[in-house]
Amino acid sequence: MCGGREGGLECWETTFLTCVKHLQLEPRRGSPDPGRRGSRSSGAQESGSAGIPRGWGPAVLGALGATSFTLQVLTVTEQLDAGVRYLDLRVAHMEEGSERNLHFVHMVYTTALVEDTLTEISEWLEKHPREVVLLACRNFEGMTEDLHEYLVTCIKNIFGDMLCPRGEVPTLRQLWSRGQQVLLSYEDETSVSRHVELWPGIPYWWGNQVKPQDLIRYLEHMKSCGRPGGLFVAGINLTENLEYILAHPTASLRTLTLPSLPYLGAWVREQCPGPGARCTNIITGDFIGADSLVSDIIRLNQKLLQG
């Protein structure tokens, strides 16, 4: 069920695996240590990826589908079709409405119910049995223990056997053989301890910068400190601060971000996947479709084939 959109990015993981025997989704233990955000909108999600051959040791998620894009007008299905494999899902309970009125939020509440969006993702995966997504549930707002249990129950009911249980990080081929397509990280330690289907929260390098030059400087500093030992996100998201908003009352995050995409894209194209201390993993950004960032990030995986 793979189409030809975005040059075949709808099924890019499947295609890439024809060239590599084993891809691991994240670094294994013993990989270089420490280091350390997300987004969304009415359908705003992000991408994930895969890794590298076992012989490389730690893998790179950011370079293998390292795309996460938010603040989109695209539906979830359209984002997945465009190659996004890491979805940043920020969940909030809205006081208005039903007792279990869970929505996604990014600065403002979205109209999308959590259950509906998760079902849309599941239906897409059923049509693309060899594509794998990484879902990051985090930045919860107004969530009680009962609401967490309700959300986790929804997740398990919707995805079922697609969920990869927490444990040793699998290769894509292992996921294929088990019929598993979803790794779900959940930023609530109590919930993770109760449900083997949930993985711990993923570190996010968020620069919180208005200027792209300052953001890249921050990311390069984080790289110089050494990557985390597991999955991690490098966010190329610009952020409006109060000073910027007051100086540009008619501007928006979109008008801030779009002129900077070529500069940010140039940095992305210079990144390398792999186990090295300065290698990237998941790369996230805003406004998918406004530039070639998704395809640029996916193309980073070709560096794995070049040795």
TrEMBL record:
- The membrane-spanning stretches of this chain are none
GO MF, one example = phosphoric diester hydrolase activity
GO BP terms: namely:
lipid metabolic process
Question: Where are the residues of the annotated region Disordered?
Answer: 26-53
Q: Which SUPFAM superfamilies match?
A: PLC-like phosphodiesterases
Task: Show the ranges annotated as biased composition (Low complexity).
Answer: 40-51
List the InterPro entries hit by this protein, alphabetically.
PI-PLC_domain, PLC-like_Pdiesterase_TIM-brl, PLCXD1/2/3
Q: What is this protein called?
A: PI-PLC X domain-containing protein 1 isoform X2
- Which organism's genome codes for this protein? Camelus ferus (Wild bactrian camel)
